[in-house]
Known about the structure:
The chain is α/β, with parallel strands linked by helices. It has 7 helices and 15 strands.
Amino acid sequence: MTESRVPRRRRFLVCEPRHFAVQYAINPWMSTGRPVDVIRALDQWQALVDTYRAHGHTVDTVAPVPGLPDMVFAANCAVVVEGRVFGSLFHAPERRPESVPFEAWFKTEGFEVQHPESVCEGEGDLVPAGRWILAGTGFRTTRAAHREVQEFFGVPVISLTLVDPYFYHLDTALFVLDDGTAADGGNGGNIAYYPGAFSPGSREVLERLYPDAVIATREDALAFGLNSVSDGRHVFIAPEARGLAERLGGLGYVPVPVDLSEFHKAGGGIKCCTQEIRETRS
């Protein structure tokens, strides 16, 4: 008998892929010789937005800016915890201008925004998980940024080292299934992850923190199955990650396939396109 899962309504920030293209190569997925079908990308993105709203979630949008083809990957713009925003300072010079419109949007909405001093790529490498934040490093976000995040939020930050360039951001190798706010008094809840993306010491840390974690295969990870979004019950997941979806279904989660394959050409998927706005709970 599977457990009963309870969804929690979320607030998401997204950016329309009106200017989406692969104009440079900053990860192994990207090739400037591989054309992007912008119409298909727009349709897939709209399907994701519609799916979120159909499941009761709030979706806000920030206007895309010409010349910023990766702005659609809203997760990289910041991390938001209890209504406070820690912005981004991208590793790649091509992406650094993206911080400006996102930080402006947050400020207009009345949020406090802290701009990082060290390279930091938002929820790409910073994953809030109950009482702590899981933080990736190795390819993009630096350990110095992890320290900045801990000082800003006053939340313990657990550094994890990524070692496989195909999983250059933490959100390509791991996602939170349930943050544990109801199930275990606000501890780390549970996650799904691919062990091969991490250094041996980081794998041991994850094993200690999450002994019941859902372990993904490399095949499902390469299908962007771990670039998923969970509301605690529904898991918005790449349809190609069939094995992972089947395991999640057996644990009482409800997989909701959403095809964002056009964005795979730039190394992104569902989570990359989704920034979660975590506001203070009553």
